[in-house]
Amino acid sequence: GTFDKSTTVNTMARTYRLYVPTSVITAQAPGPVNLLIAFHGAGDTGANFIAATGLPTTASSNSWILVGADGYPGTGGVRGWFLSTSEGWPGTDGYTNSWPNDLAFATKIKDEVGALYNVETKKIFACGFSRGAGFTVLLAEASGNTNLLSGTWSSPFAAYAASAGYDPFGGSLNLSSTTPKRPVWMIHGTSDAAVPYSMGQSAAATLTAAGFACTFTTVTSAPHNWLWNPAFGHSNQELFDWFTANPLP
Description:
Oligomer: single chain
Shape: globular
Number of helices: 7
Order of helices and strands: EEHEHHEEEHEHEEHEH
Helix content: 25-40%
Distance between the termini: 31 Å
Radius of gyration: 17 Å
Number of strands: 10
Strand order of the largest sheet: 1-2-4-3-7-8-9-10
Largest sheet: 8 strands, mixed
């Protein structure tokens, strides 16, 4: 079924859409199932994002659990990731940006879904689009990084995928202590007018230089869009197959 879930993360109310296809109920009886957490672009919602990308159909055909996480509603209710106080992050948790709460939220989703279903802990994955893709890159960079939360946040994700992504830190974050450095697949259109193609290239170069196995796929003339789409020569199934091939050791 489809469930709208609410939770509290360090005093902050957070929400997400949980999709559990019927195929998961059958598949989890003999063994654990995979989990994909998807992060939407600025101004969107988790429910709308996963519906618009067709991810539920692919999750169903592969017997995966899917979550569309909701960014925090900032100024004017515009949801986003790593929101600054000027964008509406209230800062009541003691931070001037939402990213510490966002990181904890990702962990909370994993824990809550894992308590309800038989989730394969070696096959939990993250994907995102636009600002959500930027947050997906942040997830990869933040794990164990002593420059962020003193290195106390540990990523549960085996691999990351970012469509129209970028590095929220602009390459300024020291990634030498980041661990584990798990695979990242970035895909970007050369005609992206919202997140320039060069920003995706730069992020991929930063990750590669830091020791990540980062794949960067160029889609010539593609606009700002979810690019695992047959219209752009790729598919969600291709993405799911790549995730499956990159579990935690």
